[in-house]
Amino acid sequence: MNPGLINKKPSMSRNQILTFAAACAGLALLFVFDSTLDSFTLQIFKLCAINIILALSLNLINGFTGLFSLGHAGFMAVGAYTCAILTMSPEQKEVNYVLQPIVPWLAHIQLPFLPGLLIGGLFAGFIGWLLGVISLRLRDDYLAIATLGFSEIIRVLLTNAQTVTNGALGLKGLPRFTTMWWAWGSAIVITVFLVFLIKSSYGRAFKSIRDNEIAAESMGVDVFGMKVLSFTISSFLAGIAGGLLAHYLTTIDPKQFIFLKTFDILLIVVLGGVGSITGSVIAAIAVTISMEALRFLDGPLDLGFVATSGIPGLRMVFFSALLMVVVIYRQQGLMGKAEFSWDALARIGLLPRRGPKPGKGGL
Amino acid sequence: MDALLRTVDVNKYFGGLAAVSAFNIDVQAGEIVGLIGPNGAGKTTSFNLITGVYMPTSGRIQFEGKDIAGMKPHAITRLGMARTFQNIRLFKEMSVLDNILVAEHMRMGTNLFEATLRLPSYMKKERRVHERARALLDEVGLSAHEQASATSLPYGKQRRLEIARALATEPKLLFLDEPAAGMNPQESVELMDFILKIRDQFKLTIVLIEHHMQVVMGVCKRMYVLDYGVTIAQGTPEEIQKNPAVIEAYLGVG
Predict the structure, then answer these.
(1) Predicted pLDDT at A353
(2) B72 touches chain A (CB under 8 A)
(3) Which domain holds residue B178?
(4) Final residue belonging to a domain, choices B143, B168, B193
(5) Phi, psi of B7 (to 5 degrees)
(6) Claim to verify: residue B176 and residue B253 sit in the same structural domain
(7) B116-160, pLDDT tens digit by residue?
(8) Percent of chain B surpassing pLDDT 70
(9) Is B85 within a domain?
(10) B76 and B176 housed in the same domain
(11) So what's the pLDDT on residue A358?
(12) Which of A121, A134, A283, B84 has its CA 20 to 30 A from that of A52?
């Protein structure tokens, strides 16, 4: 732009240096955490990463494409079960399937974690595509109801397909594959992927559908195709998160994937900001940590004027109240639709502003 | 010469209501054609029929000799038709520049793979569409507002942005739905000049709906008058002004 800067030698801009430094610092932090945290804290730390993936994938469809979908628990379940069944050893399967033996064609399959995880994601993505083609003709509340119903159908299928999923007994003793590196590695790769996607021409097309569907269609955006694409990517990512969750908990059963699970993720998305990647990441970490930090609320409490002998689930009241406060006083959530950037940090005074560079000299 | 756009006996019923009946228009390349009529005459409905928002109940719509009735709006836009809206429909949460870039997506010829991996081939296309979008903004005098959010613009500029966005799809035929709505006389005159300018510069054919008689009579060589969905007159501005049916439709029976 500035003609005086044309002869400047190509060097990294300040923002690139900052990004690089932050990436190195983040990586170093992961190393430190991995080696110093006790196993309980590390578990919570891993859960943060899984919740980041879940929140981002729900935000892609709800926040960026403007489709109110509530089927996330279903896609997670598909990913979790697919990945778990594919990676479990034949011996473990025999131990698990006590009521009825597993179908023969699945009994002897045992894949490593990565292919299992990817197949789980792809299968969830395929189901998402199928559901999208059928239900994305609906809008708003109708779509929400259809996807909610779908997620319950998945749960009922999982409960009743005894010879495939072991029904209500669930699957136990899954290998603990989800290490800190798997969880955070996936979260970082997926976050970068989504940032690139949202900033690309496809991201703009998604947002145009959210803002005005009729105008988007008239400007040559294949609205239906784009909706299906966004829905499929979102389900794929939810499937991946499901697979990670299965091998994080090491035990899964259909009850984990009731529709309330979707609302846990929706809580994160709404608190962080519908349509902000930064918001989802921050809120996922904050909510996951406070879910644990507030566990004392479930135990015996003595507030001086009233004492309880421990009410399980009381900490959820805190989140309900928080959600109400946010919906009343700050509908846009923590970040609104804003994203993190170094320039934004400089604007609010947390970084020195860049003065106008002199024409000659440069860096 | 063969018409760029031709509709043959197009009808549209909403339940028992004939919103548009026996709609026949011919538009030749390079023309500016007006579509006028009282409120509720079916002008916007006929735009929606031609651009694919509605599907005609019966009749044929041909663009460059190709039947387009029943095609989806985005497919029709790809063939080379673009439009603006009576009640402005900008992408309100997006910047002015991004509004134009959305319209560039269709002709960008990219795929998800190269776009999300930011391959050099994609970055090249991205730079090209940015250049084109900025040139268009410059053309309509909105360069200074590039990063502003679309709805923060004053009304007249929002109208211009809508036209610029439509131009970004590289249309041959442009539909303007009441471009002068809410403008003062001075702005209307500027708009007329602007319409003539873009017609010549982008080699466009234009069909416009307008209530401002000054604008319609000023830029259109030929016009159609609709009333209750029926085409009651067509011809040059002078013929229309003298047509008794038109006077009756606008002023009522004396």
Answers:
(1) 64
(2) yes
(3) 1-80+171-254
(4) B168
(5) -115, 140
(6) yes
(7) 999 999 999 999 999 999 999 998 889 999 899 998 998 888 998
(8) 98
(9) no
(10) yes
(11) 40
(12) A134
